[in-house]
Amino acid sequence: MANRHEVIFAGFGGQGVMSMGQLLAYAAMLEGRQVTWMPSYGPEQRGGTANCTVVIASEPIGSPVVGKPSAVVAMNRPSLDRFEEAVIPSGLLVINSTLVGRQPRRQDLRVLSVPATGVAQELGNDRVANMVALGAFLAATAAVRPESVLESLKKALPPHRHNLIPLNREALYRGVELAKAELEGARA
Amino acid sequence: MEDVVLMKGNEAVGEAAIRAGCRFFFGYPITPQNEIPEYMSRRLPEVGGVYIQAESEVAAINMVYGAAAAGALAMTSSSSPGISLKQEGISYLVGSELPAFIVNMIRGGPGLGTIQPAQSDYFQAVKGGGHGDYRLLVYGPASIQELVDLTVLALDRANHYRNPALVLGDGILGQMMEPVRFPPMRDLGTLPEKPWATTGRRGGPKRLINSLYLQAEKCEEHNRRLQAKYREMQRTEKRWDCLWVENAELVVVAYGTTARICRTALEPLRAEGEAVGLFRPITLWPFPDDPLADLLKTGRVRAVLVVEMSAGQMVEDVRLVAGDRVPIRFYGRTGGAVPSPEEIREQVRELVRELR
Amino acid sequence: MRVAFKRPDALVDMPTHYCPGCTHGIAHRLVAEVIEELGVFDRAVGVAPVGCAVLAYDYFACDMVQAAHGRAPAVATGIKRARPDAVVFTYQGDGDLASIGMAEVVHAAARGELVTVIFINNAIYGMTGGQMAPTTLLGQQTTTSPFGREPAREGYPIRVCELLERVRGVAYLARVPLTGPAQVARARTAVKRAFQAQLDGKGFGLVELLSTCPTGWGMSPREALKWVEEVMVPYYPPGEFRTDAADPGGGPLLARVGSEVSGKHGEQA
After folding, report:
1. Residue pLDDT, tens place only, B326-350
2. Residue B76 pLDDT more than 90?
3. A167 touches chain B (CB under 8 A)
4. Distance from CA of B228 to the nearest CA of A (A)
5. pLDDT class of C239 with cuts at 50, 70, 90
6. Is B279 on the interface with C (CB under 8 A)?
7. What is the pLDDT of residues B84-116, one digit of tens each?
8. For residue C99, what is the DSSP state?
9. For position A49, what pLDDT does the model report?
10. Which CATH number fits domain C24-242: 3.40.109.10, 3.40.50.970, 3.30.565.10, 3.40.50.410?
11. Neighbours of B14 (CB within 10 A)
12. In chain C, which residue's Cα lies nearest the Cα of B200?
């Protein structure tokens, strides 16, 4: 089951949570895995929180809807409030610490606090906060290789937007590095 | 891997219809299927097709009727409230023996209901919906790949029988993305000839597309012809899928998205050694009654659990098959609520305990 | 010997089910003559409505499609879009077009669909037995307005041409009463112009034919014709409302034909 990932990406509209999930799903597909991507849909995607669920597995995937995810990436406070309780014991919680502003209540989770929005702003574009968080998620789970995500980005972006790829690559790897440092710190 | 793409169900069904030879789409916006008209509005012009956003679902289905009368392979899509509006047109399509392809990405009802997924339009789809004695070919895909494959099949079968075919999906199937492979584009020249189509006489005899038979004897004769088609469909069109039923004492029956969730619910139970299996109807009409009956006839199956996102609709067809051979239990969620694998698993566990 | 008068080939040689004094027969003939004159018989596809004219699918010799009540313009849209080289017309009554099918006709007009609509306005539901139509006049008694149509109770009769006049996409729009030889000749011209607008790719065409229903009105054929002239024409003024899609604004009425508007519309008993 370590090979299986059930991830919810959540945040507010404009944070790119849908594309974060799609890039992960696309990358998993490129790596030959079984994968589903399922968005929340309807009025809540405007204004309130948006979220999507990605399931990656080696076997055919049953439910694309997940009640107890193995990981949650929370890009804002309401997302953490909504999904913290859902994560399975010993599951992963990636928190965008720039915006969440509180520590998780649960003690039985692996927690990665990454200042995704702060790092993105340092890089000059807070819209790549999603890539920072995705990088952190990948560092903690090895669900797919970061290179596969970049490959997916190339396929997902129209050619005239390919100038955005270097920025996204940098954001992704900053996330990976930050998470590695935090994970090693936790181990030490 | 190059030919595999990650796609939403709503977009995949449109592309699949085009691959199968459909060049005409008439629709009207309604959540959660809006990506279908959106996709078709940009894709159809690329392949020389026609897209019209109609003034209503009623007009859309009647545009399908007109295009089909003129020999075109046409489609429309909607979600539950919009499909209700199309029922009149569907009845006319059947009565005039015209092929058409219809997609219903079901949302919870009744009335305006919710935009969240449901399976509460099963009765409407398989028991009529509109007026008159008629049937549609109804397909219940459980994955995006199956949605694509069944769309191609549905268009082919609709053309073959000159009868509308319906894909019954739900909000999840429409909104979800999965890797999918498409068949090659069908050469339109290989579609069947339609000498009956009203294209203008062009030197030939007069053609008439009509569902009115004022004399009862004529109308009954027409109905007999329709019923003969439905018997033929029942002989040849049933499809279903079985998982772990070989030694199952408890069989879960579910279709579409719900069947996937049931699979997830059953996986750990199988690992624990429980003799549970899954029977999944793929055609909802004709309902795969014989294969289900064969399964129940073995005497090994001691109970059946039907799971639906409805208050219990398909369960009636399962009961018709099972009779008093085995007890039938039902578990359903309604109004757009999606059952979790955990709650279904709990239902199965309870039933397993009762059997001991 | 010279043939001075014959049945158009676009009409099937058979008796119709229409009542004595009903003008459907004249309207059918005008459409058939025009189809023949324009040389489009082999490309013509007609759409029959629900109502008295449902059996038009038997009477016209061209390809025919029967449509659900009110949906003929949507069906015609589907046919025309699937076969742009076909010449497509609908033949609809007032209940079919102006009540249950109002949305379909307005939107087909707004899309400028290249189809021709023949609209039979006889101020009543004929087929179902003389019920009130959207075009039933004020004061007119029907089986469902037994005390006479009252605005406070049943609302006002709908003038279809005046409604469609300002819809962009309409290329030809006319109203003509079928009350006498001169009017029938004008009606023929109007029908021909509406078909011509389709052939020229100019847009949607509609001809409203003020028609009789002696049975539904409880009149003799002669009285019925007189009633069209004296009661219907004042409320439904004849004329050409649009003759070219190039004038979208509904400017001054063009080249009116038929009788002049007289009396106060809508106040007739």
Report:
1. 999 999 999 999 999 999 999 999 9
2. yes
3. no
4. 38
5. very high
6. no
7. 999 999 999 999 999 999 999 999 999 999 999
8. I
9. 77
10. 3.40.50.970
11. 29
12. C43
- The pair of structure tokens assigned to C189 is 């011209």
The secondary structure of residue C156, as a DSSP letter, is P
A36 Cβ under 8 Å from any chain B Cβ: yes
C-alpha dihedral over B102, B108, B111, B113, to 10 degrees? -130
Q: Does A41 contact chain B (CB < 8 Å)?
A: yes
pLDDT of residue A41: 78
Pairwise CB contact (< 8 Å): A62 & B178 = no
Tokens of A91: 């599951």
Secondary structure of residue A35 in the 3-state scheme: strand
Q: How far, in Å, CA of A93 to CA of C203, rounded?
A: 62
Fold of A5-187: Pyruvate-ferredoxin Oxidoreductase; domain 3 (3.40.920)
pLDDT in tens, B168-207: 999 999 999 999 999 999 999 999 999 999 999 999 999 9
Contact C190, C240 (CB under 8 A): yes
- For chains C and B, tell me whether 3 or more CB atom pairs sit within 8 A of each other: yes
Domain ranges of chain C: 24-242
Q: Which residues of C touch B69 (CB under 8 A)?
A: 65, 75, 78-79
* pLDDT attached to residue A188: 62
Map out the domains of chain B with their CATH numbers.
4-236 (3.40.50.970), 241-355 (3.40.50.920)
Query: Do the bridges between strand B283-285 and strand B303-308 make them parallel or antiparallel, or are there none, so unpaired?
Result: unpaired
Tell me the chain B residues in contact with residue C107 when contact means C-beta distances shorter than 8 Å: 54-55, 59
